[in-house]
Amino acid sequence: MDPCDERRYIRKRKQVAYERTEPTELIRLLGLPASVTLPDIENYTAKVLLAFGKDDYQSDAFWMACEKLHFECNLARNKDAVIEAFQTKNHDIVVIDYRNPKFIDGEGICKALRNLKSTQFTVIVAVVKRSAIEKEDSNIEPMLNMGFNRVLMETSCLSQCINELLQLYKSDVEPRVQLATAQAVYLALDKSSDVVHITDHNLNLQYLNKTSERFLGYNIKEVKDKPLLDANSVDNKELMVQQLQRGREWEGLISWKRKSGEPLLLSGRVIPAAIPGRSPSHYIFIHESPYMSHDKRLSTSAHLSKNPDLPKTQNNRKGSLDMKSISSDGLRRQSIAKLHNLSIEAPITKVISLITSVQESASPEVIQTLDKVVDILRTTELYSPQLKDDKGKTGDPITSDLMGALLSSGSTVTPITRRSSSDSGSVPRIGLSRTTYKTHNISLQMKELLDTSLLWDFDIFQLEDISGKRPLVYLGMNLMSHFDVSSSLGIEEMILYNWLTIIELNYNAKNSYHTSTHAADVMQATAGFLERERLKQILDPLDEAICLIAAAAHDVDHPGKSSAFLSNSNHELAILYNDLCVLESHHAALAFKLTMSDDRVNIFKSLERDVYKAVRQSVIDMILATEMTRHFEHLAKFVNVFSIKKDDDSPDGGRSSPDTLNWTAPENIALIKRMLIKCADVSNPTRPVQMCVEWAIRIAEEYFNQTDEEKANNLPVVMPLFDRATCSIPKSQIGFMDFIINDMFEAWEEIIGFPQLVVNMKCNYEYWKQLDEMGIQKIQDVILMQHRTPM
Ligand SMILES: Nc1ncnc2c1ncn2[C@@H]1O[C@@H]2COP(=O)(O)O[C@H]2[C@H]1O
């Protein structure tokens, strides 16, 4: 459709349900180049006021354009209404209909608005008739002088109105917002009780605040562009300048001369201001207010006791002293001093001290980079995942959706009714067996299949079929027996069988992905990893048992919805766990609740108290490690500790571990077990392609169901792009592998030596890329292609 032919569409808009258009989609709809970025409407919503005496295509087009851009829009019919609306909302843009004074007095409105002080930062636009502008002798200057910023020719074209508003936003509103912010900053500086001076890079004064004016007696006109400091102002001025030029802050005493000639010594700091990568262009001098820092000055300066004027100055200002903040500040300083006196030092403090000492002799660029490093190290969120800006902004939206949902636990509260979970209720009853578990009860087909249970291409879906959807018990018994778990725990095999049965019964068969087949698959991957020589050397039989148990139970009673969904729907589990690690906490708690519910399922009953404690702690730790919001934290810790040095001369073909690393230290074993279960949990993209595809379909189906339910119940949609009508399965898989899988499996493979993982992973990645290039998106089409793909 010709975008300018949208007039009919606009006229009909009141009957059409309005659909929110995402900015990126809008760019596509409008056919704008991908490089165009829409205003940061997440953070700032522009406010537009339409001054139109009556509705017509023009007011409709602007109204619609505002909706598309997510700008707030108001309409006023006459001068009084415009002034009233403006005084309430202080709009960024006012569009005035200037076509016919019969309907609305455009000139009067513009003048009245400009008479208000608050329109200083407002863009006023006049919409004029085509003929008014197309005339050869047309002259808009009088209108500009009247107070309009822009004169637009009438148009019924929606995209033209959108473009106009966008341009106004970019060229006028944004800079004005920034200007207003800058004014606010100046105001803050003027109101600050600190003495503030700003100089250029030659230390010539550019700005001083009101407190400085009061204390030193100069106003800016008298001293602008004059040197701020004289030779005696600072003890070692050269050193200070050197440090500032290198981009480093300086702290110390500066001796000032008041206009009246009296000296004034102030302690403070000087901060270089620079565009990143450049040398400083300005220096900011901040001195604690002479009245606020009186005590400190007295104690730091011998000069001061000789200066009788200061206490007088302080007395003059006494009314403005904030005694509470002074005393609490004093207390804070005392406690910091106490802390410094204690003989404790956190490793991070040592690291920061080392970096700071390196900065002493570094170049300005290195100093700036190290400053950033120190800033990052000072946060408490060192391992919290943050999507890199470029990926977050320009990456595939499905990937952003998926990563947003996996890596954050955002929630909004709206009630729904689902009740489930045996967490707070009673444990389901099952037919517990007291007889001996007999392996010979299984069919020949099952036996043949289970003979391959340790192979990476083990067919879990065939097991799902032939076990009547009870793969966990069959495979579980096979693997537990292989690793002799009953001996490690000192129990009969029958208890293991009962335990696997009760755990399997508590997986929800109705889910499409999080069923006991997924648990069995994770257990199978776990066994595959435990079989690697490297891990055999590190983990003992009890560790192996812990890994298999954690894998079997890690998603028990998964509702097929994410933790965010549970939080958003006020689910009892979210309430119970305060929206924190909701699902994983539930899986771990329920696993133990079920285990402890009856002696016949209690696989831990023979363990000594302290061994049980350690086993319990480790199983919980592993299950909690499957929580995806901490994915990057776990991965970063693992890579930091186990980063492998490539050494081609080493006897094991280039694989060598850091010499000093104690692989079997408890904290390192814990890291390995966490990474093991994490990799097993999301190992599906490293399986043979047919299985990889089946898992992708199952997880997508589960996500789609969640989106359906969120929409049906009017809940926040956690992953809006996982909508069965529009989602691209290949794109979601490419994104998942790019962000979560590829790096983690490369690192894991390096440690455990399992090339098949990475080979499969790369093949599958290529497969999804091919499907994507072929334009395949929907589940049905992926299934069709799957049937064509050879095993
Ligand atoms: N193939 C996949 N594609 C997209 N997401 C996946 C895939 N496999 C696993 N996941 C997600 O990764 C999560 C790992 O923890 P959960 O099993 O709780 O839930 C899992 C899914 O949300």
TrEMBL record:
AMP binds at H514, T515, S516, T517, H518, D555, D681, Q733. One of its GO terms (biological process) is regulation of DNA-templated transcription. The active site is at H514 (proton donor). SMART domains: HDc, PAS. One of its GO terms (molecular function) is 3',5'-cyclic-AMP phosphodiesterase activity. Its cofactor is a divalent metal cation. InterPro entries: CheY-like_superfamily, HD/PDEase_dom, PAS, PAS-like_dom_sf, PAS_fold, PDE8-like_REC_N, PDEase, PDEase_catalytic_dom. Pathway: Purine metabolism; 3',5'-cyclic AMP degradation; AMP from 3',5'-cyclic AMP: step 1/1. Residues 181-251 form the PAS domain. CDD domains: HDc, PAS. The keyword Ubl conjugation does not apply. Zn(2+) 2 binds at D555. Pfam families: PAS, PDE8A_N, PDEase_I. Zn(2+) 1 binds at H518, H554, D555, D681. The keyword Hydrolase applies. Keywords: cAMP, Hydrolase, Metal-binding. Residues 296-327 are annotated as: Disordered. PANTHER family: CYCLIC NUCLEOTIDE PHOSPHODIESTERASE (PTHR11347). Belongs to the cyclic nucleotide phosphodiesterase family. PDE8 subfamily. This is 3',5'-cyclic-AMP phosphodiesterase. It comes from Diploptera punctata.
